[in-house]
Prior knowledge:
Blueprint: E1 12-18, H1 30-43, E2 48-53, H2 64-76, E3 83-89, E4 92-96, E5 104-111, E6 117-121, H3 122-132, E7 138-144, E8 164-169, H4 185-195, H5 197-204, H6 210-217, E9 239-242
Parallel strand pairs: 1-2, 1-3, 3-7, 7-8
Antiparallel strand pairs: 4-5, 5-6, 8-9
Helix pairs in contact: 2-3, 4-6
Amino acid sequence: ENRIQKPCRGKVHVLCVALNCEDTDSPLSCRVDAERLCSVAHSAKVKDIVKLYDTGETAGFPSKEEVSAAIRDVGLRCRPQDYFVFFYSGHGDSVENEDAPSGRDCLLCLRTRDGQDETMLDDEVANLIVENVDKDAHVLMLCDACHSGGIMDIDTPGVWGGRKVTCISGCQETQCSGDTGDGGVMTNAMLKVLKRKTVQDMRRKGKASVQYIFNRMVEFMPDDEEDDDGEGESEDEEEVTTSEEEEEDSAEDKEDDSEEEDEEEAVGEEE
Length: 271
């Protein structure tokens, strides 16, 4: 099991993008995902939190132009050893690309302020982060969307240049993620894990790695099903990808589910 040997020292910068798509044929409950994650970040004393929702309540809107600008703005505030966290909850898609290692490109499905559909390619997401986030900062992408397994283009050689990049996605490139009506399946699983007292204690000490959290998220996910390209009823299968190997620690810890009601949600103390 992967555990952090040294506590986190950098500041955390969070960008939350959520689309409910309420006036469409495929509405979602993504705003609640973002709000809950922002609450976790706020509890951990994170001060730099930027929100872009399509519900009209945030100054920023999840259009391609404004998401791109937000990545630039938040990214440029990151210093060496800081953490750039990009959370996306909304619709996702993928298209064939014979030049991609997997044969597909992943897309974020965005919208203009007047309701027109837009998309952002995985290449575009990755390039924006590379161009605007300090090369010695840590990058974490949390993507609760369909076809999101390759959204950070981590499998494409040369894109990240040895940077510290990790992505947790709601499913693989050929699968669909699930919306419960009260948030996405992936985000709900992550929040359940973060509420565990054992996990909270580890996070306060700066000892819980992304891999450690992900390993415990899996138990809250639906059983794996066959890849399903285009069918909206497919269940989630989470995927975690990283651009660098983490050191393994085989020590086991025992979880205490009976103490999940402890509501202090600390994502990691910021110093």
